[in-house]
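Researcher: We plan to redesign the surface later, but first we want a full-length starting point. Tokens attached.
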């Protein structure tokens, strides 16, 4: 993972040469992944991709091994700074940091940037899992530590593995994918019963209506609704996270010591530049 400070990230966003180089790099990576997903390949090719996937997991594990308990926040990369959902995300990031959580996002712009920004401004730890996309996705400058990944499923594992609660702001297909992946893992008891908060009643009401249809058809059960809170109120969201993530599970701050032998470092609060 390449370490960059906030000033470097801003400069690279403005530099047309660096942006063109990054675009070409991302295009090459996308072609490689499309090739991998287009059916069976040679045994050598399949083995090579399995090794690349393994390396991505190890990269993420090494970067995030020293995280204190996290709450992951999902949401769209497309909202600008003046948008109400950007402002909401910034507020949420700050409140989570005040509760003592490390705040984790997908590491990109929009809501993700807002949440990382709010956590950083409140003096908390702010991390992310960035992924290369055809558009939108560049690391935002408000993270203390992040990892850049190629594979969506590796990214989703990282976003889930270290978190004790999940907040979902308005977003698109990717956000809904992350939401239902999380709910499925909780439903099937692959992860503990951690809280899920949907922020934006009006935005998520059609999704909730569909869930009620699923309940009527008995494709899900009432228990599956237990941990889901739909609200517009940040204080209510924080109370839900506090009860189900901290009080119910007896969550305490836990840190692992870095290994000098492995060249590991603690995740420290980045100094503002």
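Model: Full-length starting sequence:
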């Amino acid at each position: 993972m390449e370490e960059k400070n906030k000033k470097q990230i801003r400069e690279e966003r403005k530099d047309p040469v660096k942006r063109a180089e990054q675009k070409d790099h991302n295009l090459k990576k996308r072609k490689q992944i499309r090739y991998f997903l287009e059916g069976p390949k040679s045994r050598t090719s399949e083995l090579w991709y399995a090794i690349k996937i393994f390396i991505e997991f190890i990269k993420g594990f090494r970067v995030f091994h020293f995280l204190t308990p996290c709450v992951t926040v999902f949401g769209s990369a497309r909202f600008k700074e003046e948008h109400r959902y950007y402002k909401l995300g910034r507020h949420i990031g700050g409140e989570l940091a005040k509760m003592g959580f490390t705040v984790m996002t997908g590491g990109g712009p929009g809501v993700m940037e807002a949440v990382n920004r709010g956590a950083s401004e409140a003096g908390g730890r702010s991390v992310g899992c960035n992924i290369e996309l055809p558009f939108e996705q560049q690391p935002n400058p408000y993270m203390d530590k992040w990892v850049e990944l190629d594979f969506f499923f590796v990214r989703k594992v990282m976003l889930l593995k270290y978190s004790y609660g999940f907040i979902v702001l308005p977003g698109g297909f990717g956000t809904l994918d992350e939401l239902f992946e999380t709910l499925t893992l909780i439903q099937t008891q692959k992860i503990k019963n951690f809280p899920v908060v949907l922020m934006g009643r009006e935005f998520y009401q059609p999704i909730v209506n569909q869930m009620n249809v699923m309940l009527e058809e008995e494709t899900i059960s009432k228990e599956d609704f237990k941990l889901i809170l739909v609200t517009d109120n940040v204080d209510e969201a924080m109370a839900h996270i506090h009860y189900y993530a901290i009080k119910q599970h007896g969550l305490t701050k836990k840190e692992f010591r870095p290994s000098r032998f492995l060249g590991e470092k603690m995740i420290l609060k980045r100094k503002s530049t």
